[in-house]
Design a protein that fits this description.
The structure holds two protein chains of two kinds. By secondary structure, chain A is α/β, with parallel strands linked by helices. Helices cover 35% and strands 24% of the residues of chain A. In chain A, the strands form two sheets. In chain A, strands 5-6-7-3-8-9 form a six-stranded mixed beta sheet, sandwiched between helices. In chain A, β8 and β9 form a beta hairpin. Chain B has a single domain, classed as MetI-like fold (Orthogonal Bundle). Classes of the chains: A alpha/beta, B mainly alpha.
Protein backbone atom coordinates (compact mmCIF):
# COMPACT_ATOMS: atom_id res chain seq x y z
CA UNK A 1 0.00 0.00 0.00
CA UNK A 2 0.96 3.60 0.26
CA UNK A 3 3.90 3.54 2.72
CA UNK A 4 6.98 2.10 1.01
CA UNK A 5 7.81 -1.44 1.99
CA UNK A 6 4.25 -2.42 2.77
CA UNK A 7 3.58 -4.24 -0.48
CA UNK A 8 1.25 -7.03 0.60
CA UNK A 9 -1.54 -7.91 -1.82
CA UNK A 10 -5.05 -7.07 -0.64
CA UNK A 11 -7.23 -9.96 0.42
CA UNK A 12 -10.96 -10.32 0.76
CA UNK A 13 -12.42 -13.51 2.22
CA UNK A 14 -16.14 -13.89 2.81
CA UNK A 15 -17.04 -17.30 4.17
CA UNK A 16 -20.64 -16.38 4.60
CA UNK A 17 -22.83 -13.32 4.32
CA UNK A 18 -26.54 -13.31 5.01
CA UNK A 19 -29.26 -10.69 5.09
CA UNK A 20 -32.41 -10.72 7.12
CA UNK A 21 -35.39 -10.27 4.82
CA UNK A 22 -38.37 -8.09 5.66
CA UNK A 23 -40.27 -11.19 6.75
CA UNK A 24 -37.48 -11.99 9.22
CA UNK A 25 -35.95 -14.93 7.32
CA UNK A 26 -32.21 -15.20 6.82
CA UNK A 27 -31.19 -15.25 3.18
CA UNK A 28 -27.63 -16.29 2.45
CA UNK A 29 -26.23 -14.18 -0.40
CA UNK A 30 -22.52 -15.07 -0.45
CA UNK A 31 -20.57 -18.20 0.36
CA UNK A 32 -16.87 -19.14 0.22
CA UNK A 33 -15.69 -16.11 -1.67
CA UNK A 34 -11.98 -15.34 -1.68
CA UNK A 35 -9.93 -13.00 -3.81
CA UNK A 36 -6.44 -11.54 -3.74
CA UNK A 37 -5.59 -8.24 -5.39
CA UNK A 38 -2.02 -7.52 -6.44
CA UNK A 39 -1.14 -3.87 -6.00
CA UNK A 40 -1.44 -1.73 -9.09
CA UNK A 41 -3.76 -4.14 -10.90
CA UNK A 42 -7.38 -3.72 -11.94
CA UNK A 43 -9.90 -6.35 -10.91
CA UNK A 44 -13.48 -6.64 -12.07
CA UNK A 45 -16.34 -8.44 -10.37
CA UNK A 46 -18.92 -9.42 -12.96
CA UNK A 47 -22.25 -11.03 -12.25
CA UNK A 48 -25.98 -10.66 -12.62
CA UNK A 49 -27.92 -8.04 -10.67
CA UNK A 50 -28.57 -9.08 -7.09
CA UNK A 51 -25.54 -11.39 -6.98
CA UNK A 52 -24.04 -9.44 -4.08
CA UNK A 53 -21.34 -7.59 -6.03
CA UNK A 54 -22.00 -4.31 -4.28
CA UNK A 55 -22.12 -6.16 -0.96
CA UNK A 56 -18.61 -7.55 -1.59
CA UNK A 57 -17.36 -4.11 -2.38
CA UNK A 58 -18.94 -2.62 0.74
CA UNK A 59 -17.34 -5.35 2.84
CA UNK A 60 -13.92 -4.67 1.27
CA UNK A 61 -13.94 -0.99 2.21
CA UNK A 62 -15.45 -1.49 5.65
CA UNK A 63 -18.95 -0.10 5.07
CA UNK A 64 -20.45 -3.51 5.87
CA UNK A 65 -18.99 -5.29 8.89
CA UNK A 66 -21.71 -7.90 9.40
CA UNK A 67 -20.13 -10.94 7.70
CA UNK A 68 -18.03 -14.02 8.40
CA UNK A 69 -14.57 -13.61 6.93
CA UNK A 70 -11.79 -11.08 6.76
CA UNK A 71 -10.18 -8.29 4.76
CA UNK A 72 -6.70 -6.84 5.13
CA UNK A 73 -7.30 -3.35 3.78
CA UNK A 74 -5.34 -1.21 6.27
CA UNK A 75 -7.19 1.37 8.37
CA UNK A 76 -5.00 4.12 6.95
CA UNK A 77 -5.57 3.19 3.30
CA UNK A 78 -6.95 6.09 1.29
CA UNK A 79 -9.97 4.90 -0.59
CA UNK A 80 -11.36 6.57 -3.68
CA UNK A 81 -14.86 5.42 -4.40
CA UNK A 82 -17.37 5.96 -7.17
CA UNK A 83 -20.84 4.96 -6.04
CA UNK A 84 -23.67 3.92 -8.34
CA UNK A 85 -25.13 7.40 -7.87
CA UNK A 86 -22.76 10.39 -7.94
CA UNK A 87 -23.43 11.21 -4.24
CA UNK A 88 -22.18 14.79 -4.45
CA UNK A 89 -22.93 17.45 -1.86
CA UNK A 90 -25.61 19.48 -3.70
CA UNK A 91 -24.94 22.63 -1.63
CA UNK A 92 -21.25 22.76 -2.56
CA UNK A 93 -19.68 23.69 -5.90
CA UNK A 94 -17.92 21.05 -7.98
CA UNK A 95 -14.55 22.36 -6.80
CA UNK A 96 -15.63 22.30 -3.14
CA UNK A 97 -16.90 18.74 -3.53
CA UNK A 98 -13.42 17.70 -4.65
CA UNK A 99 -11.71 19.92 -2.07
CA UNK A 100 -13.70 18.56 0.90
CA UNK A 101 -13.05 14.93 -0.07
CA UNK A 102 -9.35 15.53 -0.65
CA UNK A 103 -8.12 18.22 1.78
CA UNK A 104 -4.51 17.06 1.42
CA UNK A 105 -4.43 17.60 -2.36
CA UNK A 106 -3.32 21.01 -3.64
CA UNK A 107 -5.73 23.31 -5.50
CA UNK A 108 -3.63 23.00 -8.65
CA UNK A 109 -3.72 19.21 -8.57
CA UNK A 110 -7.47 19.21 -8.02
CA UNK A 111 -7.94 21.54 -10.97
CA UNK A 112 -5.69 19.35 -13.10
CA UNK A 113 -7.63 16.17 -12.31
CA UNK A 114 -10.90 18.00 -12.98
CA UNK A 115 -9.46 19.34 -16.22
CA UNK A 116 -8.38 15.86 -17.33
CA UNK A 117 -11.99 14.74 -16.96
CA UNK A 118 -13.36 17.71 -18.89
CA UNK A 119 -14.68 19.54 -15.82
CA UNK A 120 -12.53 22.65 -16.19
CA UNK A 121 -15.48 24.90 -17.05
CA UNK A 122 -17.74 23.49 -14.36
CA UNK A 123 -15.68 23.96 -11.19
CA UNK A 124 -17.90 26.73 -9.84
CA UNK A 125 -21.20 25.01 -10.73
CA UNK A 126 -23.44 23.31 -8.23
CA UNK A 127 -24.18 19.59 -8.81
CA UNK A 128 -27.84 20.41 -9.47
CA UNK A 129 -26.76 22.33 -12.56
CA UNK A 130 -24.91 19.35 -14.08
CA UNK A 131 -26.12 16.57 -16.35
CA UNK A 132 -25.83 13.01 -15.04
CA UNK A 133 -22.80 12.41 -17.26
CA UNK A 134 -21.01 15.43 -15.82
CA UNK A 135 -22.01 14.53 -12.26
CA UNK A 136 -20.47 11.08 -12.79
CA UNK A 137 -17.28 12.72 -14.00
CA UNK A 138 -17.19 14.76 -10.80
CA UNK A 139 -17.59 11.56 -8.78
CA UNK A 140 -14.73 10.04 -10.76
CA UNK A 141 -12.57 13.14 -10.26
CA UNK A 142 -13.31 13.03 -6.54
CA UNK A 143 -12.15 9.42 -6.31
CA UNK A 144 -8.86 10.28 -8.03
CA UNK A 145 -8.40 13.56 -6.16
CA UNK A 146 -7.77 11.74 -2.88
CA UNK A 147 -4.77 9.99 -4.52
CA UNK A 148 -6.24 6.66 -3.54
CA UNK A 149 -4.35 3.56 -2.45
CA UNK A 150 -7.43 1.65 -3.50
CA UNK A 151 -9.94 2.71 -6.12
CA UNK A 152 -13.40 1.19 -5.86
CA UNK A 153 -15.97 1.60 -8.63
CA UNK A 154 -19.55 0.43 -8.24
CA UNK A 155 -21.18 0.36 -11.70
CA UNK A 156 -19.72 3.78 -12.40
CA UNK A 157 -21.31 4.19 -15.84
CA UNK A 158 -24.72 2.68 -15.27
CA UNK A 159 -27.63 4.58 -16.88
CA UNK A 160 -25.41 6.58 -19.23
CA UNK A 161 -25.92 6.29 -22.97
CA UNK A 162 -23.45 4.01 -24.73
CA UNK A 163 -21.38 6.68 -26.48
CA UNK A 164 -20.87 8.60 -23.27
CA UNK A 165 -20.19 5.45 -21.25
CA UNK A 166 -17.54 4.40 -23.78
CA UNK A 167 -15.85 7.79 -23.66
CA UNK A 168 -15.81 7.89 -19.88
CA UNK A 169 -14.50 4.33 -19.83
CA UNK A 170 -11.59 5.34 -22.06
CA UNK A 171 -10.83 8.35 -19.87
CA UNK A 172 -10.94 6.13 -16.80
CA UNK A 173 -8.60 3.59 -18.43
CA UNK A 174 -6.09 6.35 -19.17
CA UNK A 175 -6.27 7.65 -15.60
CA UNK A 176 -5.85 4.18 -14.11
CA UNK A 177 -2.84 3.52 -16.35
CA UNK A 178 -1.26 6.80 -15.37
CA UNK A 179 -1.81 6.44 -11.62
CA UNK A 180 -1.25 2.66 -11.41
CA UNK A 181 -3.82 2.47 -8.63
CA UNK A 182 -5.13 -0.86 -7.34
CA UNK A 183 -8.72 -0.96 -8.55
CA UNK A 184 -11.82 -3.03 -7.95
CA UNK A 185 -14.59 -2.53 -10.48
CA UNK A 186 -18.05 -3.93 -9.99
CA UNK A 187 -20.15 -4.20 -13.12
CA UNK A 188 -22.68 -6.31 -14.94
CA UNK A 189 -21.26 -5.24 -18.29
CA UNK A 190 -18.74 -7.67 -19.76
CA UNK A 191 -17.50 -5.03 -22.18
CA UNK A 192 -16.70 -2.66 -19.36
CA UNK A 193 -14.82 -5.40 -17.49
CA UNK A 194 -12.84 -6.56 -20.54
CA UNK A 195 -11.80 -3.04 -21.47
CA UNK A 196 -10.75 -1.98 -17.99
CA UNK A 197 -9.61 -5.00 -15.97
CA UNK A 198 -6.46 -7.09 -15.80
CA UNK A 199 -8.37 -9.86 -14.11
CA UNK A 200 -12.07 -10.69 -14.22
CA UNK A 201 -13.89 -12.64 -11.53
CA UNK A 202 -17.21 -14.11 -12.62
CA UNK A 203 -19.90 -14.51 -10.00
CA UNK A 204 -23.00 -16.66 -10.12
CA UNK A 205 -25.15 -19.22 -8.34
CA UNK A 206 -27.32 -19.00 -5.26
CA UNK A 207 -25.81 -18.16 -2.80
CA UNK A 208 -23.28 -16.36 -4.95
CA UNK A 209 -19.85 -17.89 -5.41
CA UNK A 210 -16.98 -17.53 -7.88
CA UNK A 211 -17.73 -19.51 -11.04
CA UNK A 212 -14.60 -18.62 -12.96
CA UNK A 213 -11.70 -16.21 -13.40
CA UNK A 214 -10.15 -14.81 -16.58
CA UNK A 215 -6.90 -12.90 -17.08
CA UNK A 216 -6.94 -10.19 -19.72
CA UNK A 217 -3.48 -10.17 -21.24
CA UNK A 218 -3.55 -7.19 -23.58
CA UNK A 219 -3.23 -3.69 -22.09
CA UNK A 220 -6.33 -1.52 -21.62
CA UNK A 221 -5.06 1.36 -23.70
CA UNK A 222 -4.30 -0.92 -26.70
CA UNK A 223 -7.14 -3.43 -26.48
CA UNK A 224 -7.81 -4.80 -29.97
CA UNK A 225 -11.19 -6.01 -31.13
CA UNK A 226 -9.87 -9.52 -31.64
CA UNK A 227 -8.46 -9.62 -28.09
CA UNK A 228 -11.81 -8.49 -26.77
CA UNK A 229 -13.63 -11.14 -28.76
CA UNK A 230 -11.22 -13.80 -27.54
CA UNK A 231 -11.78 -12.80 -23.91
CA UNK A 232 -15.53 -12.82 -24.42
CA UNK A 233 -15.38 -16.34 -25.91
CA UNK A 234 -13.42 -17.56 -22.88
CA UNK A 235 -15.96 -16.05 -20.53
CA UNK A 236 -18.87 -17.48 -22.53
CA UNK A 237 -17.45 -20.99 -22.21
CA UNK A 238 -17.04 -20.59 -18.45
CA UNK A 239 -20.65 -19.39 -18.16
CA UNK A 240 -21.85 -22.33 -20.30
CA UNK A 241 -19.97 -24.85 -18.14
CA UNK A 242 -21.38 -23.27 -15.00
CA UNK A 243 -24.91 -23.43 -16.39
CA UNK A 244 -24.48 -27.09 -17.36
CA UNK A 245 -23.45 -28.04 -13.82
CA UNK B 1 -46.90 48.67 -0.75
CA UNK B 2 -50.04 46.72 0.05
CA UNK B 3 -48.52 45.72 3.39
CA UNK B 4 -47.84 49.35 4.27
CA UNK B 5 -51.39 50.35 3.33
CA UNK B 6 -52.75 47.56 5.49
CA UNK B 7 -50.62 48.73 8.42
CA UNK B 8 -51.80 52.34 7.96
CA UNK B 9 -55.41 51.13 7.91
CA UNK B 10 -54.85 49.37 11.25
CA UNK B 11 -53.51 52.59 12.78
CA UNK B 12 -56.44 54.56 11.33
CA UNK B 13 -58.97 52.13 12.86
CA UNK B 14 -57.13 52.41 16.17
CA UNK B 15 -57.31 56.23 16.00
CA UNK B 16 -61.03 56.22 15.18
CA UNK B 17 -61.79 53.70 17.93
CA UNK B 18 -59.83 55.78 20.43
CA UNK B 19 -61.85 58.87 19.50
CA UNK B 20 -65.16 56.95 19.79
CA UNK B 21 -64.34 55.26 23.09
CA UNK B 22 -62.59 58.31 24.53
CA UNK B 23 -61.22 56.53 27.58
CA UNK B 24 -57.77 56.17 29.10
CA UNK B 25 -57.91 52.39 28.52
CA UNK B 26 -57.66 52.98 24.76
CA UNK B 27 -55.23 55.85 24.15
CA UNK B 28 -54.78 57.17 20.59
CA UNK B 29 -51.57 56.26 18.67
CA UNK B 30 -49.98 59.67 19.21
CA UNK B 31 -50.31 59.41 23.01
CA UNK B 32 -48.52 56.06 22.90
CA UNK B 33 -45.73 57.56 20.79
CA UNK B 34 -45.37 60.44 23.27
CA UNK B 35 -45.06 58.01 26.18
CA UNK B 36 -42.56 56.00 24.16
CA UNK B 37 -40.48 59.14 23.56
CA UNK B 38 -40.58 59.99 27.27
CA UNK B 39 -39.44 56.50 28.25
CA UNK B 40 -36.73 56.65 25.58
CA UNK B 41 -35.48 59.98 26.89
CA UNK B 42 -35.08 58.66 30.41
CA UNK B 43 -33.22 55.62 29.00
CA UNK B 44 -35.66 53.19 30.61
CA UNK B 45 -37.08 52.04 27.28
CA UNK B 46 -33.69 51.02 25.85
CA UNK B 47 -32.54 49.44 29.09
CA UNK B 48 -35.64 47.27 29.39
CA UNK B 49 -35.78 46.41 25.69
CA UNK B 50 -32.08 45.50 25.80
CA UNK B 51 -32.33 43.28 28.83
CA UNK B 52 -35.37 41.47 27.42
CA UNK B 53 -33.64 41.02 24.08
CA UNK B 54 -30.60 39.60 25.86
CA UNK B 55 -32.79 37.09 27.70
CA UNK B 56 -34.47 36.15 24.42
CA UNK B 57 -31.15 35.58 22.66
CA UNK B 58 -29.48 33.58 25.45
CA UNK B 59 -32.43 31.30 26.12
CA UNK B 60 -33.13 30.92 22.40
CA UNK B 61 -29.54 29.88 21.68
CA UNK B 62 -29.53 27.45 24.61
CA UNK B 63 -32.76 25.85 23.41
CA UNK B 64 -31.58 25.69 19.80
CA UNK B 65 -28.19 24.14 20.54
CA UNK B 66 -29.60 21.68 23.09
CA UNK B 67 -32.55 20.83 20.87
CA UNK B 68 -30.33 20.28 17.84
CA UNK B 69 -28.00 17.91 19.66
CA UNK B 70 -30.90 15.97 21.20
CA UNK B 71 -32.85 15.98 17.93
CA UNK B 72 -29.96 14.61 15.88
CA UNK B 73 -29.29 11.84 18.39
CA UNK B 74 -32.97 10.94 18.62
CA UNK B 75 -33.34 10.95 14.86
CA UNK B 76 -30.28 8.75 14.30
CA UNK B 77 -30.45 6.33 17.24
CA UNK B 78 -33.62 4.27 17.69
CA UNK B 79 -32.84 3.14 21.26
CA UNK B 80 -32.11 6.68 22.40
CA UNK B 81 -35.25 7.86 20.63
CA UNK B 82 -37.38 5.34 22.51
CA UNK B 83 -35.76 6.30 25.82
CA UNK B 84 -36.06 10.05 25.37
CA UNK B 85 -39.40 10.23 23.57
CA UNK B 86 -41.65 10.00 26.69
CA UNK B 87 -39.65 12.82 28.30
CA UNK B 88 -40.11 14.86 25.17
CA UNK B 89 -43.86 14.28 25.18
CA UNK B 90 -44.10 15.29 28.85
CA UNK B 91 -42.09 18.44 28.23
CA UNK B 92 -44.04 19.30 25.07
CA UNK B 93 -47.32 19.13 26.99
CA UNK B 94 -46.22 20.79 30.22
CA UNK B 95 -47.76 24.30 30.29
CA UNK B 96 -45.18 27.07 30.04
CA UNK B 97 -46.46 28.57 33.28
CA UNK B 98 -45.82 25.34 35.21
CA UNK B 99 -42.22 25.18 34.00
CA UNK B 100 -41.64 28.83 34.88
CA UNK B 101 -43.09 28.58 38.40
CA UNK B 102 -41.22 25.34 39.10
CA UNK B 103 -37.95 26.87 37.90
CA UNK B 104 -38.44 29.86 40.19
CA UNK B 105 -39.31 27.63 43.15
CA UNK B 106 -36.49 25.14 42.60
CA UNK B 107 -33.70 27.45 41.44
CA UNK B 108 -34.87 30.69 43.08
CA UNK B 109 -35.95 34.05 41.70
CA UNK B 110 -32.71 34.44 39.75
CA UNK B 111 -31.54 35.16 36.22
CA UNK B 112 -30.45 31.55 35.56
CA UNK B 113 -33.87 30.30 36.65
CA UNK B 114 -35.52 32.68 34.18
CA UNK B 115 -33.25 31.62 31.31
CA UNK B 116 -33.61 27.90 32.09
CA UNK B 117 -37.39 28.20 32.27
CA UNK B 118 -37.60 29.84 28.84
CA UNK B 119 -35.08 27.47 27.25
CA UNK B 120 -36.92 24.43 28.63
CA UNK B 121 -40.15 25.70 27.09
CA UNK B 122 -38.56 25.96 23.66
CA UNK B 123 -36.28 22.89 23.84
CA UNK B 124 -38.84 20.12 23.12
CA UNK B 125 -40.15 22.07 20.17
CA UNK B 126 -36.70 22.35 18.58
CA UNK B 127 -35.89 18.74 19.40
CA UNK B 128 -39.02 17.44 17.68
CA UNK B 129 -38.39 19.53 14.55
CA UNK B 130 -34.71 18.64 14.24
CA UNK B 131 -35.51 14.97 14.90
CA UNK B 132 -37.67 14.97 11.77
CA UNK B 133 -34.73 16.43 9.86
CA UNK B 134 -32.31 13.86 11.26
CA UNK B 135 -34.64 11.04 10.25
CA UNK B 136 -34.65 12.34 6.68
CA UNK B 137 -30.83 12.50 6.42
CA UNK B 138 -29.31 10.98 3.28
CA UNK B 139 -27.48 7.76 4.18
CA UNK B 140 -25.69 7.81 0.82
CA UNK B 141 -23.93 11.06 1.70
CA UNK B 142 -23.12 9.73 5.17
CA UNK B 143 -21.45 6.68 3.58
CA UNK B 144 -19.62 8.87 1.10
CA UNK B 145 -18.24 10.99 3.95
CA UNK B 146 -17.18 7.86 5.80
CA UNK B 147 -15.45 6.22 2.78
CA UNK B 148 -13.57 9.43 2.03
CA UNK B 149 -12.63 9.61 5.74
CA UNK B 150 -13.89 13.18 6.13
CA UNK B 151 -13.06 14.58 9.56
CA UNK B 152 -15.91 15.14 12.02
CA UNK B 153 -15.83 18.91 11.55
CA UNK B 154 -16.24 18.63 7.78
CA UNK B 155 -19.05 16.13 8.23
CA UNK B 156 -20.97 18.34 10.63
CA UNK B 157 -20.38 21.55 8.69
CA UNK B 158 -20.75 20.35 5.12
CA UNK B 159 -22.78 17.14 5.25
CA UNK B 160 -25.02 17.30 8.33
CA UNK B 161 -25.92 20.98 8.83
CA UNK B 162 -26.85 21.77 5.20
CA UNK B 163 -29.31 18.89 5.25
CA UNK B 164 -30.78 20.14 8.53
CA UNK B 165 -30.87 23.79 7.42
CA UNK B 166 -34.58 23.90 6.42
CA UNK B 167 -35.51 22.30 9.75
CA UNK B 168 -33.25 24.70 11.66
CA UNK B 169 -34.88 27.63 9.87
CA UNK B 170 -38.36 26.33 10.76
CA UNK B 171 -37.37 25.84 14.40
CA UNK B 172 -35.83 29.33 14.45
CA UNK B 173 -38.93 30.99 13.09
CA UNK B 174 -41.41 29.32 15.42
CA UNK B 175 -38.85 29.54 18.23
CA UNK B 176 -38.19 33.24 18.21
CA UNK B 177 -41.84 34.20 18.51
CA UNK B 178 -42.44 31.57 21.19
CA UNK B 179 -39.36 32.54 23.21
CA UNK B 180 -40.04 36.25 23.35
CA UNK B 181 -43.61 35.71 24.49
CA UNK B 182 -42.44 33.38 27.26
CA UNK B 183 -39.64 35.75 28.27
CA UNK B 184 -42.29 38.41 28.99
CA UNK B 185 -44.18 36.01 31.27
CA UNK B 186 -40.97 35.06 33.04
CA UNK B 187 -40.15 38.73 33.60
CA UNK B 188 -43.65 39.46 34.80
CA UNK B 189 -43.48 36.67 37.37
CA UNK B 190 -40.04 37.06 38.79
CA UNK B 191 -37.68 39.68 37.34
CA UNK B 192 -37.18 43.29 38.49
CA UNK B 193 -36.70 44.64 34.95
CA UNK B 194 -37.39 44.00 31.29
CA UNK B 195 -40.39 44.60 29.03
CA UNK B 196 -42.47 41.99 30.91
CA UNK B 197 -41.81 43.74 34.23
CA UNK B 198 -42.78 47.12 32.77
CA UNK B 199 -45.98 45.66 31.36
CA UNK B 200 -46.80 44.29 34.80
CA UNK B 201 -46.26 47.74 36.29
CA UNK B 202 -48.49 49.27 33.60
CA UNK B 203 -51.15 46.67 34.36
CA UNK B 204 -51.16 47.55 38.06
CA UNK B 205 -51.53 51.23 37.19
CA UNK B 206 -54.02 50.49 34.40
CA UNK B 207 -51.63 52.51 32.21
CA UNK B 208 -52.34 51.27 28.69
CA UNK B 209 -50.13 53.99 27.16
CA UNK B 210 -47.11 52.61 29.02
CA UNK B 211 -48.08 49.04 28.19
CA UNK B 212 -48.23 49.72 24.45
CA UNK B 213 -45.14 51.94 24.59
CA UNK B 214 -43.17 48.84 25.62
CA UNK B 215 -44.99 46.17 23.61
CA UNK B 216 -44.88 47.88 20.19
CA UNK B 217 -41.12 48.56 19.97
CA UNK B 218 -40.43 44.97 20.89
CA UNK B 219 -42.67 43.70 18.10
CA UNK B 220 -40.73 45.96 15.73
CA UNK B 221 -37.42 44.52 16.96
CA UNK B 222 -38.60 40.93 16.45
CA UNK B 223 -39.88 41.81 12.97
CA UNK B 224 -36.46 43.29 12.24
CA UNK B 225 -34.70 40.09 13.33
CA UNK B 226 -37.02 38.05 11.12
CA UNK B 227 -36.46 40.31 8.11
CA UNK B 228 -32.77 41.09 8.45
CA UNK B 229 -31.41 37.92 10.09
CA UNK B 230 -33.66 34.88 9.61
CA UNK B 231 -34.74 35.48 6.02
CA UNK B 232 -31.25 36.33 4.69
CA UNK B 233 -29.94 33.22 6.49
CA UNK B 234 -32.58 31.10 4.77
CA UNK B 235 -31.72 32.59 1.38
CA UNK B 236 -28.04 31.98 2.03
CA UNK B 237 -28.41 28.31 2.92
CA UNK B 238 -30.74 27.57 0.02
CA UNK B 239 -28.72 29.41 -2.65
CA UNK B 240 -27.58 26.10 -4.20
CA UNK B 241 -31.13 24.98 -4.99
CA UNK B 242 -31.92 25.34 -8.70
CA UNK B 243 -34.38 28.21 -9.12
CA UNK B 244 -37.83 27.23 -10.24
CA UNK B 245 -38.40 28.30 -13.83
Amino acid sequence: MCPAGDQKPLELVVKRKAFRTASGKRREVLRDFAMTMDLGKVYALVGPSGAGKTTLLRILIGLDKDFEGSTNVPQYARIGMVFQEPRLLPWRSVFDNLRLAAPQTSDDDIKKIAGDLGLGDHLSHYPGELSLGLARRVALARAFAVRPDLLVLDEPFVSLDMALATRLREELAALVDRTRVTTLLVTHSLDEAIHLADHIILLGGEPTAIIGEVDIASPRSAMTDSAAVEAKAKIASILAQSAAR
Amino acid sequence: MLRLASLLLLIAIWQIAAICVHSHVLPPPLAVVTTMAKEAQSGALFFNLGITLLRVIVSFLLAMIGGMILGVFMGRNKTFDRLADPWLVVLLNLPALVIIVLAYIWIGLTEPAAIVAVALNKLPNTTATIREGARALDNGLEEMASVFAMPLRTRVQHVLLPQLAPYIAAATRSGLSLVWKIVLVVELLGRPNGVGFEIYTAFQLFDVKLLLAYALPFIVIMLGIETFVVQPFERHVSRWRPKAA
